[in-house]
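Researcher: For the record, we're logging two predictions in this thread. I'll number them. Prediction 1 follows.
Model: Prediction 1, sequence and structure:
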Amino acid sequence: MPRLALLLLAARALAGDVTVDNAVPVRFGARFSDEAGQRVAVFNGDKGVQLPLRLAEPAESEVVALVRARSGRKFTLKVQGQGVSLGSEAVGTGDFQEVSLGRAKLPAGLGRLSVSAGGGAGLSLRALRFPSASPESPPLWPLNTAYVDDGKGGAQGWRSLSLRDSGEARIPVSSSRDAEAALAIAYRADKPARLLVDGQPFDLTSPSGSLRARIALRQGTQLVRLRAEGGEVRVDGILLEGARVSDHWPLPNGNAQSVHFGYPVPEGVTAVWAYAEALAEPGPESTYHCVLGFGQGYFGYQVRYQRGRPDDRWFIYSLWDNGYVRNAEKSETKEELRDKVVTLVAKGPEVNASAFDHEGSGGHSHLNFRWKDREPYQFLLGVKPDGSGAVFSAWINGPEIGGWRFLTSFRRPNTKAKLDGLYSFVEDWSGRQGDQERACRYRNLWVADAAGAWHRLVRANTSATAELGRRDFSHRVVGDAVELRTGGYRHAEGKPGASLGIPASGKAPAIDFSNLPAGT
């Protein structure tokens, strides 16, 4: 019998019931609480949770959800996975109720079911019931969100990891409390090797087997590290012994938090120019440092390389359409789109410009450029009226640029010519290296009115995305700048909803607006 199967023999649930004790939330999906000694998953939105499910032999059964929703509230429950796809509409009673989802043929073996709910924000799930089956719900840690060194193995499905010699996996975990966790780890190794579990060495002398390790978990988020030495090791599963997975669960998504500053424009000022300086700290791929975001677009620079191409960097400037429009529709020249679609007015040398229609739609532009870490770059935005619309333009300057370089001008219809809603952010947009820190500093921020008078920005209001379980981010004043930092599972200084004073360092920019370079 496979080692994981032997470990699972001790992980029994009540016949017919799969509680949420060993569930994990999908991204933004749910939070856990205890009510009258029973674990409950409270949905944050539509996505919900995933539950491990194991049957010794195939079975056919009705599937019933034990849920609670506000009295009179309509919702739609769905259960999917292991060949099961069921759904049902219901109306809340204000108390826990049984909602039948239909009948399903359940296969033998180990898998997981996803429970989602349309209109599910605030809905509570206690269990799934299978009146004609006897499922088990093992305390199994999903491993598919582990960070694994490139070229050294990776996730094999949702419960296995392959580690080559000297390869390391870092499993992101969120714990509701400080605790010591007991892990049972099933493994395979082609030759004698060693597996380090949070630094504790275990010699693997047989081709397959299991080991037991105890690790310290602290309240909050952290990384549990597995490292192979002396040969390749396959981890076939990790069971949490003597505890509920929902108390110490792997985070459902690898992205570092997106962290932001918002900059209020001084009262009474209509800004038509915005200026900022930024210095990016060394960091991993798939990082966007937005320097001057505004109500209709954003402007900054990215580390966008994949798999070891650190020269693959660019400056990026985008403007959103006045309403969402797909690229295919834009090419059809529909008259009714004239009041929605952003159009390209001009672009600078070597600048690439195109339409986009993901995460909103609009005009995108970028300049491939080997910008350097910890070097100060200057960002300038300008806007001017154009009939009933406005033309927004972007320029960049820096130590090796030697003067303002024009990127792009886009026209946005039905838009007032002003810059408001100014902001900066640091974003991890792939999630593959969310265990590494990203940071950027912003200083000497100004806006200018139509008369060319500069006004200093003095406050940075803080915010962050609600990435479930993660708190490893910070908003700080560092020297003459304000800093955004995220990722790494170390910093926990983030204070969303606070307001920082921007150091009053640096002089107002001296810019001859009439002689700024323009493109074609």
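Researcher: Logged. Prediction 2.
Model: Prediction 2, sequence and structure:
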Amino acid sequence: MIPISSPLRAGGYDHRVAAWSIVVAGFVSYATAELLWRASPRVSKGSCRLESWLGAGVLGLGSWAAQMTALLAATGHVFLYNPETSPIALVFGLSGSLVALTRLRRPTPLLCSLAGGMAFGLGLVGMCVVDMHGIVVPGMRRSFDVGPIVLSYPFAVGFSAPALWIVRGFHAPHAECVARGDWSLIPFCVLMTTAVTGTQYIDMLSLHWVRIPGRNRIGPPMALADQGTMANAIFIAVAAVLLGLLWSFHRHFRDSTRRRERAERAGAHTRAVLKHMLEGVVVTDAQGRMLSVNFAAAAIFGYRAHELKGRNMSMLIPVPREGAHESHIEGPARLDMRQPVDASPREAEGLRRDGAVFPMEITTRVARVGDKRLFVRVVRDITQRKQAQARLVRRANYDDLTGLPGRALFRDRARQALQRAERDEGTLAILYIDIDHFKAVNDRLGHGAGDDLLRIVAARLRACVRNEDTVSRVGGDEFVVLLERFSSHQDVALVAGKIVDSLAHPFRIEGYGGHDVRVSASVGIATYHRGGAQDLERLVRQADSAMYLAKKRGRHRFQFYGGTPSTKSKAV
């Protein structure tokens, strides 16, 4: 029998794979430290227990993955692995990690760290030895040198015990220990990585192989795993560690988000209350001279309170609208003291220090002091209210998704155009457009992609017509184009053809996998005949009917109601 030295003594290691084993051990150490940090007393008791158990599982499973990577780094021989030993090795690793990490909360830090290091070291050495027993080399027999195995145990304890002592500070009752937790992750990762990888490589020094003459086969059939299968198992173990860490991050992020949302709601409530309590208040005399201005009122106009005191309130009214000074400021002052002042809010325009004009609301109250009257005016900046009203008006007239005129605005414009055509004996055409296969886009890519498609369709339709023409969205995937002042049906047909061709080009839907979507358009056309007496509703029905006829004839086309100028067939 010919003895074969261990791979390490022979220099038989793939240094890149060996480096990866250190990386895996480092990642596992970091994941464990993060989980233990999140198990600190800053969170609930149930979460502490759950994170601690998860950290123990991550450390045990990750240590096994790191040592399996170290075994793959041994390139001295092509070997196989008996997977039946893996559960036993995992039991050693998980048991040692669980005992080590569950003793962190004991009251004696030094003894607990030492006991935890001894338990973890025992589990680590046992896991390494069991895994080495699972290695099978064809035609060879393994033997062990006890010396390196004995040496690896104090090595594992010597590095893991200080690491456990460091992370025990996360659970210390002193706030300063918890505050230093983020910095403590670095030495913990270094010590634990050294303990895991160093123990494995020291234990591998004990492994020797003896060649058996005339034996090139393994022996009895066994369910052995090759090195590729071992690599897959390592990948699954590391992925499990990563998932555990990501789950912890998710819980931490979710809890932080909830706390932040609660704080934001409380802050918004407080700001809302202050906003309604601290309204702008200006106190003037009968001549409009400002006697008192609170901070909110001064801020509305862009001044400091002391800069307005003693000056006339007319300076806060725009020059072209100084007539408002009469109705809102001097008017109430001219009333007899026995006459009540109208206390209803009035809208006016204010002038800020920078010259900006803004809408405001003034409510006047009268305070009688002896034989004098003081006017208390509550001033509100109603810019947002006006903007909201403008948005409501726009929403009533325009489509939110595409920005095109909506049904109501289209009908208003179309009625005016029809009146002009009747008065001037002009021309008018309505193109009713339906997107073919739009439902399939929604079903395949979702409604978000459908909305993007409609926005692009709207842009292409606007590009196909003149600025004075109207493009409107009147339904889900239905659009209407209003054309005026054209010379002949050929002009309308040219526009309709441009629309059909434009919508036939592929649509790139960003954010949904960059899909190229192909649709087409069916266009129905109804024209107002010079001198005719058709109403708008009838024209719209005719265009809609022609559109359905275009669909019936194969889609991707346009159809005049009543046929093209060369045909007289009626659309049904």
